[in-house]
């Protein structure tokens, strides 16, 4: 969907204790990659636990447009009959990635070293986001891209007919850029090397290996050096998608801030490149126990038991930012309810997400009576142990802003409304029913 449908205004009220089991959906990052790697493989990939959020559905549609056969058998159960590395067909129409930066950037990478062109677009949020961070390294392989001013969508990428391998140091902490370069490297001869100074989520590396690529990772003084041998034969796999820690963050934080709550959130990925929020919450005084640690779908997972806790503000170490980059909005909401100041530095990447998340949280928290400070790379929330609320917050077509203010409304003194909850369906389509099942008072207006 390139359009954005009717806004869905929503409201959250102060709630009694939350209780029960919160089974959050599959991981969004892994779901995109399962479809894309399935499409680039020979044979059948069988996926269970796929997130059926709009972002992932848009990637499934895109993989069909590039020639893969993608079939849904039942809830979360999908198969992909791939075309193999280098086997993409030229799409007959524009590829619409909706709200998904991950979708469009990874797919651009996956097609950039094939002799075909594709035109990409997305919704009003995605059309504001920078694509140059991906098309710059893809140009090194020989691909060309023409888009709107500032490297914005709509954009046409002409894949390299005779790609050359690349050695590239990613200039910002971005798993999407790293992954786009690795996916492009699949169809280039020789070795493609990607260096990241700060480690970001490593699902692409783990899954490429799982699908049969020859990929090595070395920690060096330069950073993480990832070396991929080009033109492998990837073969279809079974992928069991673990539950998304970035979605789990919402019920977890709701239970922490609503007095008397105790919930269980089973099977949440504990991948160290993703679990920074949980570490931070524990440092703030959160009562979270990590039960039954085990491995599922190649990822470490645990069941999280979460009890309401008195939280105190802390300084979040900037080097932790990449491992919790999507969780700063909900952390900022939680910090507003805590005693004392929470300092979030090294977070300028938040300004180029589905919205400018520093600005969206700062404006919404101020409207709710919370004192904040911000600069280009920083958000500081002065928690006073209570949040007045009583405001309508703008969500800017951003699912995580929408869910963060709804969760905050469960513990605020007065209702908190949002102007539009429709983007929640991009990543967490069952958010409303799941939260209602715990006893949260969240409604459409
Ligand atoms: C993602 C990477 C992150 C994250 C996004 C998912 C991925 O984006 O914010 O939600 O699946 O690779 P950046 O690469 O822009 O940091």
Helix amount: 25-40%
CATH-assigned homologous superfamily of the largest domain: Enolpyruvate transferase domain
* Ligand identities: shikimate-3-phosphate
The low-confidence runs, each spanning 5 or more residues with pLDDT under 50, are: none
CATH topology of the largest domain: UDP-n-acetylglucosamine1-carboxyvinyl-transferase, Chain
Provide a brief overview of the structure:
With 445 residues, the chain is α/β, with parallel strands linked by helices. It contains 12 helices and 24 strands.
Can you tell me about this structure?
By secondary structure, this protein is an alpha/beta fold. The chain folds into two domains: 10-26 and 242-444, UDP-n-acetylglucosamine1-carboxyvinyl-transferase, Chain, CATH 3.65.10.10; 28-163 and 177-186, UDP-n-acetylglucosamine1-carboxyvinyl-transferase, Chain. Helices cover 28% and strands 29% of the residues. The protein is built from twelve helices and 24 strands. It has a four-stranded mixed beta sheet. A four-stranded mixed beta sheet has the order 2-15-17-16. Strand 8 and strand 9 (152-158) form a beta hairpin. Helix 1 (28-39) packs parallel to helix 3 and helix 7 (245-257) runs parallel beside helix 9 (328-337). The longest helix has 13 residues, at 245-257. The two termini are 24 Å apart. The model has no long low-confidence stretch (mean pLDDT 97). It binds shikimate-3-phosphate. Shikimate-3-phosphate (S3P) binds at residues 29, 102, 174-176, 179, 201, 325-326, 349, 353. Shikimate-3-phosphate binds next to helix 5.
């Amino acid at each position: 969907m390139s359009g954005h449908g009717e806004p869905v205004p929503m409201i959250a009220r102060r709630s009694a204790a939350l209780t029960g089991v919160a089974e959050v959906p599959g991981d969004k990052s892994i779901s995109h990659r399962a479809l894309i790697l399935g499409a680039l493989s020979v044979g059948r990939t069988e996926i269970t636990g796929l997130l059926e959020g709009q972002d992932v559905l848009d990637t499934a549609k895109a993989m069909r447009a590039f020639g893969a056969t993608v079939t849904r058998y039942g809830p979360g159960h999908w198969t992909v009959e791939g075309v193999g590395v280098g086997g993409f067909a030229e799409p007959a129409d524009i590829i619409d990635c909706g709200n998904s930066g991950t979708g469009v950037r990874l797919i651009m990478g996956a097609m950039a070293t094939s002799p075909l062109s594709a035109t990409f677009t997305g919704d009003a949020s995605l059309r504001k986001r920078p694509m140059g961070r991906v098309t710059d390294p893809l140009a090194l392989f020989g691909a060309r891209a023409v888009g709107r001013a500032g490297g914005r969508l709509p954009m046409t990428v002409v894949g390299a007919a005779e790609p050359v391998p690349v050695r590239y140091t990613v200039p910002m902490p971005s798993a999407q850029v790293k992954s786009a370069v690795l996916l492009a490297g699949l169809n280039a001869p020789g070795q493609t090397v990607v260096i990241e100074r700060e480690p970001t989520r490593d699902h692409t590396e783990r899954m490429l290996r799982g699908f049969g690529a020859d990929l090595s990772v070395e920690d060096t003084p330069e950073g993480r050096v990832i070396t991929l041998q080009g033109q492998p034969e990837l073969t279809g796999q079974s992928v069991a998608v673990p539950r998304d820690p970035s979605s789990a963050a919402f019920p977890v934080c709701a239970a922490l801030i609503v007095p008397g709550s105790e919930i269980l959130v089973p099977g949440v990925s504990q991948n160290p490149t993703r679990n920074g929020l949980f570490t931070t919450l524990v440092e703030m005084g959160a009562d979270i126990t990590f039960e039954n640690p085990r491995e599922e779908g190649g990822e470490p997972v645990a069941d999280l038991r979460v009890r309401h806790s008195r939280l105190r503000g802390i300084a979040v170490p900037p080097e932790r930012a990449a491992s919790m980059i999507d969780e700063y909005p909900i952390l900022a909401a939680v910090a507003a309810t805590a005693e004392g100041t929470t300092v979030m530095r090294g977070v300028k990447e938040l300004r180029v997400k589905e919205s400018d998340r520093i600005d969206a949280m700062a404006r919404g928290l101020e409207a709710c009576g919370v004192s904040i400070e911000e600069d280009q790379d920083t958000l500081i929330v002065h928690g006073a142990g209570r949040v007045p609320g009583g405001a309508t917050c703008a969500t800017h077509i951003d699912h995580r802003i929408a869910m963060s203010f709804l969760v905050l409304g469960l513990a605020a003194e007065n209702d908190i409304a949002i102007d539009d909850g429709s983007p929640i369906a991009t990543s967490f389509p069952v958010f409303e029913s799941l939260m209602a099942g715990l006893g949260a008072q969240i409604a459409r207006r």
